[in-house]
Design a protein that fits this description.
- By secondary structure, this protein is an alpha+beta fold.
- Among the domains are: about 295-480, Valyl/Leucyl/Isoleucyl-tRNA synthetase, editing domain (Isoleucyl-tRNA Synthetase, domain 2), CATH 3.90.740.10; about 500-565, no CATH class; about 650-720, no CATH class; about 765-875, Isoleucyl-tRNA Synthetase, Domain 1 (Orthogonal Bundle), CATH 1.10.730.10; about 885-945, Roll (Ubiquitin-like (UB roll)).
- It has 30 helices and 34 strands.
- The strands form nine sheets. Strands 10, 11, 12, 13, 14, 15 and 16 form a seven-stranded mixed beta sheet that branches.
- Helix 23 (about 745-750) crosses helix 24 (about 765-780), helix 25 runs antiparallel to helix 26 and helix 27 (about 840-850) runs antiparallel to helix 28.
- The longest helix is centred in the last third of the chain and has 19 residues, at about 795-815.
- The protein starts with a helix and ends with a strand.
- The structure holds one RNA strand.
RNA sequence: GCUCGAGUGGCGGAAUUGGUAGACGCGCUGGAUUCAAAAUCCAGUUCUUUCGGGAGUGUGGGUUCGAUUCCCACCUCGAGUACCA
């Protein structure tokens, strides 16, 4: 028979599992967090970077940012805002496809399963997401619009005069009436000039080819980063240290026909926009760096004996009289043309040798200087002197013009090259020795031996040289960007298909009303035997222009039925605009309605990792500006404020095996002995770093008969902070924490670990502090029997504690200093417990204060206090200064800046009265030990400092 | 190499515009309660000390009545980038 009394007291315990399940169900049933697209309230859009749903599930590091944004979103609801706080999945990607290759399981199935698992985990943490707006990038209803935006990009060009994107039809109109002579557009470098007449006479195919040179997404032969192991190309931001970011596979340069995005057209605006957003300075720096703006000049050198010129970009036109040779990249198109007979063999060998070297090898030996003389000479634009033309792999084909004017006295690489090959190093600097190293200090430059710019500084000389170059038609001022156009094709299956088919080799867009073009079924997810992307395996992947449907490949007749594009879009396609989709996620007619876009405008708070600095966060800004240019959205920077949450690191545990034995030595006994550290699962180690020996023996067969050297009967593991990962056995799952301590404890502990932006190690041992705090909070409301909240008038101390807390917590949330507000709550509850406060006037506002952090316990307490509605929309308590007013101050009294004692004095006292009171204190007399103070500093309300 | 950022107890970390360094929590020590344990509660916990004090926020200097905070130089660690002309 159950014991009634016992059950009754059980009820009054803080039963977090029951409470959390109850309120999670309540929120879901009542759609508590569904946001309306119309409201009298001010709007607030709190966004998290949506996750890729991996098979491993979430570990405690993942939700950190989500918890922070959730606290902020909940806080804003209390503050009377209409809050949009959505979540979704970036569900196209490599892992699901790699898994499909291994198992044959369709990526859609694994993705679906992973999403369910993620959702389950997220739900357990009690987020206030509006799930009615969920998006998945791999869902046809979503990627329909990704394809739609792609078509808009195809149908647009960049007008540099207007500095915005415009429809291609307008460009065609210009071509028809005046050719391209007056067009100032972002286009391919090899675009030739033509008149209206010429344009009108071009064949349709020729016209299409020319237009591709202008379109914002275009098909072109490009040098790409080919990763053989992954069987696909990679963008620059997907390569780290010369190997693929995912998997660390080698990457080689390869020329391929690929879709590219003309992001370079937006370089200046991407730079400028950074000035207007509240993003971390470090992140802005990374983007600025990546865009890599440099101001200088383009200079043309005629090649002697050839009808050719070498264009170079230089940031130091002022040093043009210091040129003693030129260097071309080995891949430079002029190399073959201008090389003399005598040098031909050497040059060809060198070009051949460098092309065979991988990117990584080239990077690895930057110290080795290599190059070959072409035998050709260029003509200095001012002096007319012969300038020998060399090739060398320190010049990159992909930057600037792929050629440099070498000024060995002013550039260290040129200096090294000149030294190595015995080339002259003419000095054009006043009072500087350049025999040992180059002089690159612009600020202190005084030009000499340089004709019309002698005696000038860097700035003036630069300006003069550019003017002179323009006069003789051999150069002009130019700004160069490091930012390259982004390759947009991937030779993969699990990505958005392009809405593109090919007629006579030219890409054609499928009309938008026929979107989405859904991914076809394939038997194998590997490239075809002929090396085509996986979509080449699809038997039904052709476009019928009459029925406007996807049909069988064998029907292709190149008259009415054409082959479809075999590449798919990269991972960053969907994430480049998803934040706009949340504003109107269900819309089937538009990517989002005008009303919704106008109402929500932009993201007020965006939280995510800084690893997306040069990928997602740059591409999405580019797409936003493009959509803005077309008038489709009303803001050109989509995220006002961005915070990078720091990574939560794992605390790995190690055992130490003696070399060539099966004996494990406790951490403090290893001494100088040769030991091999081995990761052990952190779940087998307790809070005191003590290893569970039985669990360890059972962990793996080879440890079954392990022997141990123990200290005081215990095996103590070594600890090290590392990235949290399966292979390091240091992963902690939020599910376990939720079931052992509850979601509210998890949320508060994650915040309590430290500042949001900072990387910090996870250590489950510390969680009891936060958990105990919640139990203590609970006890303010319940004694053993029942609710013990009274209607008694609060005391002055009660009010002081409450209002101190309101003030601090509000400031902390506004400053995203969530760790300190958790401390503040602890202090508050400690004080109220000591005061034995059970007054409703205090405890009710306290529930609202803590609700953003610990929403489940807050809902339960709120309802126990008699409220029928959710606490989620209760007004945030208002701080009242009057409760904090003090009449006295505990003054710290310092001697020469060192605090020695404190003395309580009335705050009404004047400076002189304070000084007198302190000087007459016996402790002062003792400290001074007979000396006379030289000076007494009194800051009323703050400190007293006695000097002498 | 260049560009950022960070160094505070055994640990995670606090400290408004320069004004009581180490809040809060973990861990540890002692105590209460308990048959015992868990749980809970109380006290202590930077180092050093001859118990008067003395030293102390990576190191060395500087500004100031007073510096974790501002300035200069250096050291260490982390991140980004990598021949960018």
């Amino acid at each position: 028979m159950p014991c009634i009394r016992n059950t009754y007291t059980e009820v009054m315990k803080y039963n977090f599992n029951e409470i959390e399940a109850k309120w999670q169900k309540y929120w879901a049933d009542n759609r508590t967090f569904k946001a309306a697209n119309h409201s009298d309230k001010p709007k607030f859009y709190a966004l998290d970077m949506f996750p890729y749903p991996s098979g491993a599930g979430l570990h405690v590091g993942h939700p950190l940012g989500y918890i922070a944004s959730d606290i902020y979103a909940r806080y804003k609801r209390h503050k009377g805002f209409n809050v949009l706080h959505p979540m979704g999945y970036d569900s196209f990607g490599l892992p699901a496809e790699q898994y499909a290759i291994q198992t044959g399981q369709h990526p859609a199935l694994t993705t679906e399963a992973n999403i369910s698992r993620y959702r389950e985990q997220l739900d357990k943490i009690g987020f206030s997401f509006d799930w009615t707006r969920e998006v998945r990038t791999s869902d046809p209803s979503f990627y329909k619009w990704t394809q739609w935006i792609f078509i808009q990009l195809f149908n647009a060009w960049y007008d540099l005069d207007a500095d915005k994107s415009r429809p291609v039809q307008e460009l065609i109109n210009i071509f028809e009436s005046e050719g391209n002579v007056n067009v100032n557009a972002a286009c391919d470098d090899d675009t030739q000039e033509f008149s209206a007449d010429q344009w009108n006479k071009f064949s349709n195919k020729e016209q299409q080819k020319i237009l591709l040179k202008y379109r914002l997404t275009y098909l072109a032969d490009t040098e790409v980063n080919w990763c053989p192991a992954l069987g696909t190309v990679l963008a620059n931001d997907e390569i780290v240290n010369g190997v693929s970011e995912r998997g660390g596979h080698p990457v080689v340069r390869k020329k391929m026909t690929q879709w590219s995005m003309r992001i370079s057209a937006f370089a200046e605006r991407l730079l400028e926009g950074l000035e207007r957003v509240d993003w971390p300075e470090a992140l802005k720096d990374i983007q600025r760096n990546w865009i890599g703006k440099s101001v200088g000049a383009q200079v043309s050198f005629k090649v002697k004996g050839h009808d050719a010129q070498i264009d170079v970009f230089t940031t130091r036109p002022d040093t043009i009289f210091g040129v003693s040779f030129m260097t071309l990249a080995p891949e430079h198109e002029l190399v073959a043309r201008i090389t003399t007979e005598e040098q031909k063999k050497a040059v060809e060998d060198y070009v051949e040798a460098t092309s065979r070297r991988s990117e990584r090898e080239r990077m690895a030996d930057v110290k080795n200087i290599s190059g070959v003389f072409t035998g050709a000479y260029a003509e200095h634009p001012f002096t007319g002197k012969d300038v020998p033309v060399w090739i060398g792999d320190y010049v990159l084909a992909g930057y600037g013009t792929g050629a440099v004017m070498a000024v060995p006295c002013g550039d260290q690489r040129d200096h090294d090259f000149a030294n190595h090959f015995g080339l002259p190093i003419p000095n054009i600097f006043e009072g500087v020795d350049v025999s040992v190293e180059a002089f690159a200090d612009k600020e202190n430059t005084v030009i000499a031996n340089s004709d019309f710019i002698n005696g000038m500084g860097y700035k003036k000389a630069t300006q003069c040289v550019i003017e002179e170059l323009e006069k003789i038609g051999q150069g002009y001022g130019k700004i160069n960007y490091r930012l390259r156009d982004a390759v947009f094709s991937r030779q993969r299956y699990w990505g958005e298909p392009f809405p593109v088919y090919y007629v006579d080799g030219m890409p054609q867009m499928i009309a938008t009303e026929h979107l989405p073009i859904e991914l076809p079924e394939v038997e194998k997810y590997l490239p075809t035997e002929t090396g085509e992307p996986p979509l080449g395996n699809a038997s039904q992947w052709a476009w019928d222009t009459e029925t406007n449907t996807v049909v069988e490949n064998d029907k292709i007749d190149h008259k009415k039925i054409f082959p479809l594009e075999l590449n798919t879009m990269p991972g960053w396609a969907g994430s480049s605009w998803y934040f706009n989709r949340y504003m109107d996620a269900g819309n089937t007619k538009e990517f989002a309605s005008k009303e919704a876009l106008n109402y929500w405008q932009d993201v007020d708070l965006y939280i995510g990792g800084s690893e997306h600095a040069t990928g997602h966060l740059l591409y999405s800004r580019f797409w936003q500006k493009f959509l803005y240019d077309l008038g489709l959205i009303s803001v050109d920077e989509y995220a006002r404020k961005l915070i990078n949450q720091g990574m939560i690191l794992g605390t790995s545990a190690f055992v130490y095996r003696l070399e060539n034995s099966n004996t494990f030595v406790s951490a403090n006994l290893k001494g100088d002995r040769e030991v091999q550290p081995i990761h052990v699962d952190v779940n087998m180690v307790n809070a005191s770093d003590e290893l569970n020996l039985e669990a360890f023996k059972a962990w793996r067969p080879e440890f079954a008969d392990a022997k141990f050297e123990l200290e005081e009967g215990k095996y103590i593991v070594g600890r090290e902070v590392e990235k949290m990962s399966k292979s390091k056995y240091n992963v902690v799952s939020p599910d376990d924490i939720c079931s052992d301590y509850g979601a509210d404890t998890l949320r508060m502990y994650e915040m309590f670990l430290g500042p949001l932006e900072q990387a910090k190690p996870w250590n489950t041992a510390g969680i009891t502090g936060v958990h105990n705090f919640l139990k203590k909070l609970w006890k303010l409301y319940f004694d053993k029997e029942a609710l013990c909240v009274t209607d008694n008038e609060p005391t002055a101390d009660n009010l002081k504690t409450l209002h101190k807390t309101i003030k601090k917590v509000e400031e902390d949330i506004e400053n995203f200093s969530f760790n300190t507000s958790v401390s503040t709550f602890m202090i508050c509850v400690n004080e109220l417990s000591a005061q034995k406060c059970h007054s409703r006037a205090i405890l009710e506002p306290l529930v609202v204060l803590i609700a953003p952090y610990a929403p489940h316990i807050a809902e339960e307490l709120w309802s126990q206090l008699g409220h029928q509605e959710s606490v989620a929309y209760a007004a945030f308590p208002v701080f009242e200064e009057k409760h904090l007013v003090e009449s006295t101050k505990e003054y710290p009294v310092s001697f020469n800046g060192k605090m020695r004692f404190t003395k309580e004095l009335s705050l009404d006292l004047s400076k002189d009265q304070i000084e007198e009171a302190v000087l007459s204190d016996e402790r002062t007399i003792k400290q001074l030990d007979g000396r006379t103070p030289k000076k007494v500093i009194v800051v009323p309300g703050k400190i007293v400092n006695i000097v002498g």
